[in-house]
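Write out the 3D structure for:
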Amino acid sequence: MGIHPSDPTDAPLARFDQLRTDDPSAALAGYAAHLDALTADDVDRLDWICRQDLRQRLEFEPLLQAAWRAQGEPRFRRRVGGTLALIAQMQGRADDAKHLLQQTLAIERDDPDDAWLRACLNLSLSFGQDRRVLESLILARRAIDVAERIGDRHWGAFAWKRYCGTLVLIEDAERLEQALAHAERAAEVLADGPAAEALGVELLFARAELARIRGDSEVALELLALCEARGEAMPSGRYYVNAARVQRAFNLLRLRRHAEAEASLASLEDPVSPDLARHAALDRVRCRLVTGGRDAALALAEDAIRGLEAEPAGVRYHDAVPLGRYLAEEVRDPFLARRAFELASTSLLTLVTEVELCIRELPEIQEATPDVPEILADYRTRLSKRHGALMSTVAKSLTEQLVRHDPERPDDDRIAMCAWCHDVQVPGRRWLPISHFVPASPDLQVSHGICTRCAHEYF
């Protein structure tokens, strides 16, 4: 099918073309009411439709899918692919959205435009939500470079914001402060409006996260109060209001102000997004131990662990580590603590596999700027240190159990990891350093135990 511009005399659509500038909502509704008059090669109208907010107009999806399959002009096809990905995200089809975004980025990669840039940012965000930091970071940095190259200052500001988000995930305070300065300068070019308002709030959240990473919860609370106030003033700011209250609860718990934290969580407004609901559930476990009793806390911990088992590996590792520490050190329930720790270790090994896949399958890694490998190397070092501290906690919590039992081999198909030296048992009952172990599949489970050498040395 050939791709050609819309015919301005085409009735009954021509009258809706005239409404695009003065009343875009009416124009979109008119096109939706006359879908049978639109065709997949109606480039001008479909391109305009792709630039609108389609949250209430998902009936355009079949027509856009036909345009996507038509293999038309690359720039138009990129815009259609990015729009279909957003529709898939709105419908909860995250894997379909990622696949579409990856296909969109592959269209004439050497000649990016604003549609390519938006797809790059959305894919970075998608990976970031799954805590797949490597992919998210590389794509965000690539988006910054492309925005500068094509002179797109609008999306360049959002690229810097997304880059700040990846640095929050890896808790790199020094680079985050530098990136925030760039992002705040870039945001000054945006005209007043909903997009500029949302960007400003999200950069303020990043400032609050920077304070949290540096251990200054009081400053974080002050910044979160500003985030909440701005969210309440926005017509569609409920997500920001809830995010501020969840993050406020987390910082209050660090200050051991449990009653205030529980009140903050109780004030969440429906609907609560899945990511915020997960964080709120973990914080309620800690609150209930003090305000609601041990049994209530343990029941919530069980629910939290079951919920984490269904999350992506990066999310499981990020959330299971503090939950395990809390169960071991404050709740003093070694059984539940061990479940959380084993979930965290399983996730860590899964992430190793995902990183290997990323290096092989993400073309943008070949185009990364020199600072990206440095950032990732620093992140791996911090992650390694944190995992070592985690294993020390595991070893302490398991000592009594290991004295009574021979834990060298788990009773099922799980992989055994020594909580003392961190070696991993492979087939043939051999123990290898974790740095030498690359899982054949991300579908694995870990059981903490002790290797023969450490058992003889410590017991």
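The two ends are 75 Å apart (CA to CA).
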